[in-house]
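Database export, one record per block. Field names are fixed; values are copied verbatim from the stored entry.
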Amino acid sequence: MFPLSDDNPTTNYPAVNHLLIGFNIIAFIAEFIFLSQGGSIDGKLPFDNFALVPARFVSHFSPNEFGTIFSSMFMHAGFSHIIGNLWFLYIFGDNVEDRMGSTNYLLFYLTCGIFADLAHILTNPLSAVGCVGASGAISGVLGAYLVLYPGVKVHTWITWYWRPRVDAWILIGLWFFSQVVYSLISSSEGGGTAWFAHIGGFVCGIMLLKIVIKNDPGGRPAPGDKLALPPFISASIALWGLISIVFFAYHKYIDSHHPRTAVAPVAAPPVKIAVPAGRPVVVAKKASHKPKSPPSGAKALPVKHHSSHKGR
């Protein structure tokens, strides 16, 4: 279900939202001109120096590493990545800015991006894979839109012949649910999508909304107030996201401090069997399967036991 537009006109020009879209496009073009084709330095592309790498951030924290939180927020890994992110920002960001005000919206956007990156670091502290993209900050915008305008109709695309109009809470709710599901079933090893960055940004957007919201002059209620999501539901969604982040981060912490190791197999000692004198003993060979009769007299035949093991 892909959003095409919403029935939610704005009263003011969304200058900051359009500037953010422009900065992301400029940064994306600069990646290919100055970074991707610049050759490697110590085995790494210059692109990696501007990406957020959790393991590097945790082990070598510095002002430069802190700066990667902001630089990675305006970088993208490909055309589909940037087009998808900026389209969601274009559809939903203008109304959130219109409700908050331009300055508050800019601070809100950057704060959600920071919180999203911190959620990614917290849940993947040992990852050496660089993380880029504006989706963490945009997830915060979606969280704010969900609370402010849950009942607004959004035109969506499912197939060429099916383009339903759905409530914003259905579209954004399904999106958030999918992020939680994918975060639980996807492996954090290697590349892919930073699901917990999306969850962290979304939760931050809901929690920050009332702090940065701007009331209309004279204390009159803004148009979005009549559609606002009930506080109990907003708090429940935010709490659900926080619990999932903390729970996953706790397991990562346990695994990093108490790594699981496979148990080495223990060889079984040979067993001696006393054979009565005068009785023939037949031992089957593995290769020939021919019987063998030892000389009469007491014998001690070693019996080998094969043990198996599996790592846990």
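Remark 1: Residues 39-44, 216-221, 294-312 have pLDDT under 50 and may be disordered.
Remark 2: The first strand starts at residue 2 and ends at 6.
End of record.
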